[in-house]
Amino acid sequence: MTPHWCMTGSECSTLADGAQSVRGFGFKRGSPQPTPHAMLVNLVQVNKASLRLEFNADPKVGDPLVSRYDLVDVNILVDKNSKPPMYVADEKLIINHDAIIPGELRGFSGSGDEILYIASPVEANNIDVMAFHLTTGAIRRLTSHPDYTDPITMSHDNQWIVAMDTHVVGRQMFMSGMRWIPPIIDYLVVAIASSTRNNGPRRFFQPILISHDGDSGNYFGQQVNADGDGSDGSANDPNWNGRADPAVSPDSTMIGYWQALVVSPSCGGANPLPCPVSTAQGGRNYRVMLARRTSLKPSEPAPVFEAPNFIPWAKPFPAGSTAPTQYQIPAGNYTLQGQLSGFAEVEFIEDSDAGTIQTISASYSNYSDQDGYTIDGYEKVSKWKLLPNVWKDRVEWFSNITQTGVVKGTKVTSEHGFEIEIDVSVNIMETNGTLTTVLDEIKYVQPAAGT
After folding, report:
1. CATH-assigned architecture of domain 16-27+85-292
2. Distance separating alpha carbons of residues 132 and 312, to the nearest angstrom
3. Which residues does 442 contact at the CB level (< 8 Å), separation at least 6?
4. Which residues, at least 6 apart from 436, have a Cβ–Cβ distance to it below 8 Å?
5. Which of 86, 97, 260, 262 is buried deepest, with most CB atoms within 10 A?
């Protein structure tokens, strides 16, 4: 069943001189009522599984024994024949970029033949979105900028991607800016990397338009709302930050997204950032934006892909099944071979009380996974859960890494390391010490306290 939306024009006012293509609008939801027999939903995104919702007019088993909708043809979206994203074999650490282990499902391609998802990091501390094909399981990386991306959609003609991304402000560059470090320490700190991109309720997203094939080389798409003078209330006012999720019109010529104005406690009071005064109608702190692609001709939606009832590579999950257990790397010393040169000596150290990995260290020698990027130095992280709050982590981080080749850089912590505490459900970080990345003499530092 496809949701139907209709637009209202009550707030279709131009927001800034020179940005007439970006306008505000409102939504109200329609309420089509399909017949029960037409109620068949393919690939509902529940717990990283695909399934169908099927009407059962006269059930004989189960509860309740009344007309209902049943979940059928359930597949868990993991490759039943693949290895984990990172695993150990013969004292070697192996990183498997072909693993399908979705962190969070983000939607479908324009035709529905691919599922978009937040993937295991390919590069250290870099959270990206990938896509896998429903029948072949083929994976492709859609985003690769070192900053954070998460909300994403594809145009109906299957030719364009719109991602909400933090790279306009470089929020994560202090941590993730150095390219092609293998994601070894992410085994412990991936939640840190995915949480520091916010400051409490404030997001730092802006909409980025990317071609169908995704980021490549130095191409990272273009900012949709870059046109403006940055003044209060303008289309590219930095105090207005994007939220999830963007949308594309059926003819692919318009991009919709919504934004929130930074408010207390992310500004004002003890926070060093002053709170802006809203210039929106009625002093609103939220706005919905519409960007018109004036040079793009309208296109027809791509033909709808006919999804199979059972996905060939996925793990069937019939009634009564138990969820598969997640692979855990055992404590020990391992070697990771660079794909092009060098190696990393890696140690996983267990907390004997908790029985889980608490510390990871990696020493790199002439390590390279990508032509033109060579890594030397070391990193070490240790993580503690600050119970009883299971969402709050404390991490001690030591880095001293040098990169040579296409980019000359360093990733270095202060003398006594970088300590960070963050509740990943609240996204307010407290730090002690520094983590600094320098790339071709451009310096990236962690956000100031409270910001």
Report:
1. 6 Propeller (2.120)
2. 13
3. none
4. 174, 410, 411, 412, 413, 443, 444, 445, 446
5. 262
The predicted-structure confidence for 260-276, as pLDDT tens digits, reads as follows: 999 999 999 988 999 99
CB within 8 A of 68, min separation 6: which ones? 55, 56, 59
d(CA 58, CA 46): 25
Q: By the 8 A CB rule, do 117 and 139 touch?
A: no
How confident is the prediction for the chain on average, in pLDDT? 88
- How far apart CA 83 and CA 93 sit, in angstroms, is 12
Token reading at 185: 């320490």
To which H or E segment does residue 186 belong? helix 186-193
CB 356 within 8 A of CB 162: no
Cα distance from N-terminal residue to C-terminal residue, the chain: 42
Q: Tell me the pTM.
A: 0.86
Contacts of 89 (CB under 8 A, 6+ apart): none
Backbone angles phi, psi at 151, to 5 degrees: -65, 135
Q: Where are the domains of the chain?
A: 16-27+85-292, 332-444
For tokens 């997204």, name the residue.
Answer: 257
